[in-house]
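Following up on my earlier message about D-ribose. Here are the inputs again, as you asked, copied directly from the submission form:
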Amino acid sequence: MKIGICCDHAGVEYKTKLISYLLGKGYEVINFGTDSSESMDYPDVAHPLAEAVEKGEVDLGIAFCGTGNGMAMSLNHHPGIRAGLAWNTEIGKLVKEHNNANILVMPARFISYNMVTSIVRAWLNTEFAGGRHQRRIDKIPVK
Ligand code: RB5
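Thanks, got it. Here's what our run produced:
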């Protein structure tokens, strides 16, 4: 499985560690930056990641910013994206099971790195439940 990953300056440390972690687990990882702790604007990396997921160039995406909100807001402007914010393991599971999030967003300034790996494991290892949840996600796009 190919995973695209991005962050702003607030998420560089966790993103760098998570890339090694995912590679170690056998995932292919495409890094969309940033790789610097210098202040930058999260939409500049969020949009390229979203486009890669929409085009099928990567299977899933992971994004970090300080609160997670800027990334989630930017990513969710793309019609093919369901970016879900998770800050604990249970939400990491539910954001796949109920919302079928194709991009997982985490708030780097508010969770530990141990929590990051726990959330990522939960999200990757959970299947979308479908059924009533499919009906609900079908109603998300503005017609
Ligand atoms: C950067 O200081 C911060 O605003 C950003 O990482 C994020 O939290 C925005 O939503």
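One observation from looking it over: Helices lie at 12-24, 43-54, 69-75, 89-97, 113-124, 132-138. Hope that helps, and feel free to reply on this thread.
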